[in-house]
Amino acid sequence: MKINLLHYYYVSGQYVHMLSLIDELEAIFIHEKNDIRLLDTYNYVVILLSDIDRKTEYVYLSKIKELIKKKHYPNVKIGETHSNLGTAYYLMEDYEKALYHYQKMLEFYDEFFIMNYIYMADCQNRLNRKINIPRLSDTNLRKSPINLRVMYKYFTLPDTVPAFVKQNYIFKKVLPFLYDDEVIDIFRYEVSRLIELTSQYKQLHVFDMKIRENKANIS
Asked: Does residue 157 share a domain with residue 199?
């Protein structure tokens, strides 16, 4: 299908062809009155555009919001869309809007995406709000990779846990799994907050050294 070409154009850097195909698909689905495929296309496009063309991404974000206002979609599709909008705004570092859409996602969607909950917690952190994310059962947790499990569990630690204990948790359980820049940034920010309480300022240097080791091991 033509929509699969979007990913090919994206990974091969053929952005002019990608944007042209986006316009073509949009015209097709509008003509066919295929609102589901149109929304799916918009949802996919905003993620593809997140590191290419921020101005155009905003255009499609507006189109998504207008579409879900005007058309009737199943709750699961609305939930997926709010999840996608949350991630789009999260990647823009617009934590207020990201958190809004993640919270709206929970109103429509029964499925869980553990990474979204980690992003939610980070949004709340950045906005200096109390961490409040859905609690997953042990059964659901076991469905997720161990790296995401330990990251998620960190953000469910009680407020009564001392800062140095949280810091140790990150260094012992989370840090070995930090390779991706997005989650590195999440936990570097958290370590920076914690050392203001523990006064163990050298630990940030230790954190950065371990990250370099992690990246060297996968290069």
From this structure: yes
Q: How many CA atoms lie within 13 A of 149 on its CB side?
A: 10
Whole-model pTM: value is: 0.89
Please count the residues of the chain: 219
207: its two tokens: 């954190």
The whole-number pLDDT of residue 5 equals 85
Tell me whether residue 120 is in a domain: no
Q: Residue ranges of the chain with pLDDT lower than 50?
A: none
How far the first Cα of the chain sits from its last, in Å, is 34
Number of neighbours of residue 61 by Cβ within 10 angstroms: 20
Phi and psi at 148, nearest 5°, equal -70, -30
Q: What is the pLDDT of residue 7?
A: 84
* pLDDT reported for residue 112: 73
For residue 182, give every residue at least 6 positions away whose Cβ sits within 8 Å of its Cβ, in sequence order, or none: 91
Residue 117 belongs to a domain = no
Query: From CA 122, how far away is CA 131, in angstroms rounded?
Result: 8
Q: How far apart are CA 164 and CA 177, in angstroms?
A: 20
